[in-house]
C-alpha cells in the first residue's frame, strides 16, 4: 500500500489544500485524493510537479510504501475506568487489522470520548483522544521499522472512524505514541 504524506507536508508549511490546488493549477480532486490517501492511480507527472513546487527532491519524502493493507475492525467499549466515567469520558477500543500476504496483525487502540450521559453534567468539548495502543512497546517497535508517517496514518484512520461512529469533531493523539526512526 502506498501512503501519501502531502497532508503532513501542507500542514507543516501552513498551506491549505484547496488554495494549493487552485494556485498551482491542479484539479482539487487530485490534491484531495493525495491528502486523504483515497487514490487508486497517481498521475506521476502531476505528482512530480507537486514535488517541484514544494521543493521535494526524494519520492520517499512524499510517498511511502508499506507492505500492509489497513482495515478498521471492531469497535467496542473498553472496561471503563471509574476515573474516566466520573470525568465524563467513555473508554473505547478500536481494532486495526494490518494485512499482508503472510497474514494479519491486529492492533488495538484505546480511545477516550465524551460520555453522552455525562455531557450535561460536565462542560465537555467534543474532543476525543487516542490514549494508547495495547502492547504499546511492541507496536512502536513494529512501526519504527517503517516511515514514522505509517503510524500517523493508522492513527488518523482510527480517529476518522471514531469521528464517524461517535460524532466527535476533534481528535488528539497522546504524546506517548510518538516514534523516532532508529
Count of separate DSSP helical elements: 7
Assign the structural class, choosing from mainly alpha, mainly beta, alpha/beta, alpha+beta, or little secondary structure: alpha+beta
Give the ordered list of helices and strands: EHHHHEEHEEEHHE
- Provide the gyration radius in Å: 18 Å
Instruction: Write down the domain tally.
Output: 2
Averaging pLDDT over every residue, what do you get? 85
Major sheet size, sense and barrel closure = 5 strands, mixed
The helix fraction, in percent, is 25-40%
Number of strands: 7
Shape verdict: globular
* Straight-line distance between termini: 22 Å
Instruction: Assess the beta-strand content as a share of residues.
Output: 25-35%
pLDDT < 50 runs, ≥5 residues: 118-124
Strands of the largest sheet, in order across it?
3-4-5-6-7
Domain HTH cro/C1-type: 5-67
Protein name: HTH cro/C1-type domain-containing protein
InterPro entries: Cro/C1-type_HTH
Amino acid at each position: 500500500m502506498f501512503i501519501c504524506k502531502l497532508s503532513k507536508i501542507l500542514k507543516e508549511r501552513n498551506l491549505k489544500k484547496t488554495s494549493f490546488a487552485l494556485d498551482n493549477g491542479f484539479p482539487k480532486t487530485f490534491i484531495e485524493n493525495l491528502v486523504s490517501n483515497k487514490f487508486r492511480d497517481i498521475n506521476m507527472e502531476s505528482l512530480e510537479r507537486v514535488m517541484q513546487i514544494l521543493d521535494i527532491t526524494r519520492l520517499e519524502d512524499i510517498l511511502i510504501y508499506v507492505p500492509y493493507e489497513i482495515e478498521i475492525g471492531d469497535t467496542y467499549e473498553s472496561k471503563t475506568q471509574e476515573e474516566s466515567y466520573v470525568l465524563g469520558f467513555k473508554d473505547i477500543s478500536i481494532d486495526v487489522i494490518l494485512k499482508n500476504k503472510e497474514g494479519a496483525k491486529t492492533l488495538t487502540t484505546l480511545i477516550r470520548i465524551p460520555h453522552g450521559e455525562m455531557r450535561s453534567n460536565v462542560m465537555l468539548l467534543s474532543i476525543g483522544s487516542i490514549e494508547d495502543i495495547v502492547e504499546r512497546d511492541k507496536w512502536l517497535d513494529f512501526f519504527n521499522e517503517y516511515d514514522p508517517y505509517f503510524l500517523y496514518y493508522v492513527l488518523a484512520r482510527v480517529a476518522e472512524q471514531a469521528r464517524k461512529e461517535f460524532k466527535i469533531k476533534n481528535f488528539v493523539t497522546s504524546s506517548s505514541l510518538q516514534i523516532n526512526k532508529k
